[in-house]
Amino acid sequence: MTTPVLEVRGLVKAFPVGGGIFERLRFRKGQLLAPQKILRAVNGVNLSIAPGEVMALVGESGCGKSTVAKTIARIYEPTAGEIRIDGQDVSHLGFREMRPVRRKLQMIFQDPYASLDPRQRVKDIVIEPRRAQTGRTMSRKALEEEAVALLARVGLNAEQANRYPHQFSGGQRQRIGIARALSVRPKLIIADEPVSALDVSIQAQILNLMMDLRDEFGLSYLFVSHDLSVVHHIADKIGVMYLGFMVETASRDQLFNQPKHPYTKALLSAAPTVDKALRKPEIEITGEVPSALRLPHGCCFRTRCPLAFDRCAAERPALQAQPDGSSVACHLHDQTSVARSA
Amino acid sequence: MTPFLSSEFAFNYRRNLPAVLGSALLAVFALMAVLGPLLVLQDPYDVSQLELMDSFKPPAWLEGGDGRYLLGTDGQGRDVLASIVYGARISAFIGLTAMALSCMIGTTLGLLSGYYGGTVDSVIMRVADIQLSFPSMLIALFMMSAFGTGIVMVLIALTAVGWVVYARTVRGSTLSEIQKEYIQAARVAGLSDLQIIVRHVLPNVMTPLIVVSTIQVGTFILIEASLSFLGVGVPITEPSLGLLVKEGFDVLFSGIWWTSAFPGLFIMFLVFGINLFGDFLRDELNPRLR
Predict the structure, then answer these.
(1) Domain-embedded: residue A152
(2) Average pLDDT, chain A
(3) Contact: B189, A129; criterion CB under 8 Å
(4) Mean pLDDT of all residues in A312-316
(5) Hey, what domains does chain B have and what are their CATH numbers?
(6) pTM of the full predicted structure?
(7) What percent of chain A stands above pLDDT 90?
């Protein structure tokens, strides 16, 4: 078996919130306390991406999918867990050791307006990761030639290389972002909602470009999205996240045809479809997502799950492999109990 | 040049009367300061050129005035206009140098404070807060009386009171810039903190810096004038505008008003011009005020 491009084990990311120590100081029952609130954004996520594979992370806003992406890209420090890029554990690498890893791992961002420095020319933006790798060993002219070639590959011409980002449309800016990620010929590109800020007509162009580049350069993608139709279009396998937990991972067809976790079912039924024949009765889930500052004990989805029973409050379900190759974290699909009762 | 003349900036400038007035004033003063010695007949600090007989001549248009001394003379027979021209050079030098120094120090501290946050930020900003709780004149006055006078000391004192404005402005802009994804993109690209600050943060916080710098020059000229007026500023051998006012003030109540009034008016119009232009820049470059 080939080494996965990306393997993540037990990834945890918690953010301390509530400001500095002076803002948190409270005087309670004769004691001076500085309680530290902790936002548990990601709570032990596992995933693995093979070379050339596209994995999508889906879930509603605030479920931690972007945090997973940005922690893997080491924009955030992981609180715990292991991130293996091409077999190498990078979760605790310092800035200097991380630089060679950046050659294998690049990122495309959500907001095409905020992700390009407004004061830089496009050719400088595009070549920045490459320049960080090569340092002074490459001449300015050689770098510029590479920038023009990269821009040409994503459909922009040489004349546009000297312009500033504000002279481009959203779709063009996202192409610039893709060219930037491509500049070091990475193995893995993390795409954090790369098309959600674009018009639907432009979305298809960008997605097709990304898929063409995958074939051409043998890329893998970790594709974060909340749009199920986009995910259906490009993903090989899908991970569903809820409140910082991975609740189900499955191949695309398995997930869309036989969702197992109640949350996945609800998510799929909530997605709008034009075709009436495909429309399933909507599973309504009520209530709000619990706060990531105070996670419920047991299963995190039990507060809204229509199928919750007593065990759900008592015990947190682990992600378990299913007979069909998918994995689900739900007591209704507990393989050990199935095995025991059989 | 043509694209600039047809730009929105140029259009707004032409329609903004105070801005045109302010920059016209500044242009006149800048010319005076640069061409100074060529414009006036006398070098007021070359004793051989002074005529003691010509002391306390009133301005040329008054009775007893002398055509050679347009704005009159002082007790040593110095031409007031010539003194102003030379004084303006010293005031402008002090204002611009202090601006450059406090801009460098304040911007560096503001960038560090905003970028790293945490303890670095707390320490720098608390020092700034403490300093802001005292009037800047008081701090400058204290430093000058404690550590001595002279142009270098004036510059140190002005820098010490001026860096705070830069640090706070830059910190605020930095905080809003580092939220943006292009900073994260730079990190993923493999840039070090220093490279991110220099290549990405600094160019994006330049706009408010330009505005603050304009206004600060005016403020520094005023503070320096006040210090010199109070007798703790520049030495008599390098008289700035403030010192001229002070010198003239001694004889003001003898009816000799022109030796202090004209330098005073000159300071007023200079700072007025700077502030008009600074206000225009602020309105124009700050998108939040549009």
Answers:
(1) no
(2) 88
(3) yes
(4) 89
(5) 33-289 (1.10.3720.10)
(6) 0.83
(7) 58
